[in-house]
Each structure stands twice: as structure tokens, then as C-alpha cells.
Amino acid sequence: MTLPLVIGISGASGVIYGVEMLKALKELRHPSHLIVSQAGARNLAIETNYSLDEVKSLATRVYDVKDVGAAVASGSFRTKGMVIAPCTIKTLSAVANSFNYNLLIRAADVTLKEKRPLVLMVRETPLHKGHLELMARAADLGALILPPVPAFYHDPKGIEDIIRQSVGKALDHFHIEHNLFRRWQGEEAQIETKPEQRLKPVPA
Predict the structure, then answer these.
(1) Residue 188 lies in a domain
(2) Which residues are paired to 82 by β-bridges?
(3) Looking at the 3D structure of the chain, how many domains does it have?
(4) Exposed site from 3, 85, 105, 117, fewest CB < 10 Å?
């Protein structure tokens, strides 16, 4: 039996990362269990053309963020782990301090206590010391801090390619095979496959 990956969507900018992760998992036929915060649902309307019902339809199972008695609230319910994409600073703070005020945070706390992978795609910039200390605290508890920082070595053709690379990096930590982006094969291989993409030297 393939264990489900829990996907949390909180209210930071970048809800498209959670949506694209759900789409990728559905395409891979990997089960996904979804929790969307109230602010996350609001941001779907602000930042995307997806309705909440459309996003929910991408998941294998959906939970109400207020339902702290749901399956994923217990460590005895087995999962592959959890990703919060995107992760607000408020959500990060709650995870770092085990402040289980809703199902999203409780599921993350359960993931940590059961020693399962928890990936937090923290979305905020610039970061002050308090943010950094929260990240360090969450990391000390076992979370992986994976801000969706754009990469360009895979020769992205648009925003979707940049988003899919970050999603793919997150899925790598759950050993889920995918082809979401072109992986680095060494400098020579990159130059040989894309010689026209080499940056021209800046005149002195």
C-alpha cells in the first residue's frame, strides 16, 4: 500500500506551489491528503484561477482545517510525511512551538513526533532574526526548511518550470520519483546540452 503524502496549504503568497504539488501527485498516481487553511483558501482566489473545489478535487482525501479529530491528527494513522506549501510565518511559528490550534498544525506536529519527513516551504522575504530563529527551532525539531527559491540551471522557459522545480525538490525528500525538472548532471553536461544558453561575458 502506498502511504499518502499530506499537503498543507497555508495563507502565504505562493499557494500555486501547493496546487502544483497536488497536480504532480495526481499525475504520478500517488495518494495525497489535503488540508487548506482559511487564509490559504482566500489566497487561492487572490492569486490563482483555481476554485477551492477544483483544488480539493486534485487530492485523494480532504480534511477540514478545524477538524482536530481527523485521521491525520493521530500518529497511528500512517503517512509518508507532510509538506506545507506555502508555509506562512504564523504557521512556522505554530509548528516550532507545538501550538496545535488547528488540524494543519496538529498534522505537522504528529509528523514530527512520529519522525516522518516534514517539509516547510516557508514564504517570506526579507527575514528578520525572529523568522530565522523560528526556522532554526523547527529544524531542530526535525523539519526541513525548503523555501521555494528559484533555480535556473534547468533552463526554465517560464514561471511554471520554476514552480515545478521547487515542487520537485520537495518531493525528492519523500523519495517520490518524478520528472518535474531537468536535473544537474555536471557543468560539462549542462554546457553540451544547452550551449546556446551560456551567459555571454560582460565587456570590461
Answers:
(1) no
(2) 6, 118
(3) 1
(4) 3
Among 140, 203, 139, 151, CA closest to 181: 151
Radius of gyration of the CA atoms of the chain, in A = 18
66 is in an annotated binding site: no
Helices 159-172 and 15-27 cross at an angle (nearest 10°) of: 70
Please state the rounded mean pLDDT for residues 17-37: 98
Q: Is 200 contained in some domain?
A: no
Q: Is 90 annotated as a binding residue?
A: yes
Question: C-alpha angle 22/25/27, rounded to 5°?
Answer: 110
Q: Using an 8 Å Cβ cutoff, are 7 and 59 in contact?
A: yes
- Is 13 annotated to bind a ligand? Reply is yes
For residue range 154-191, list pLDDT tens digits in order. Answer: 999 999 999 999 999 999 999 999 999 999 888 877 76
Q: What is the CATH number of the domain that holds 68?
A: 3.40.50.1950
Please give the residue range of the domain that contains residue 80: 5-174
91 is annotated as contributing to ligand binding: yes
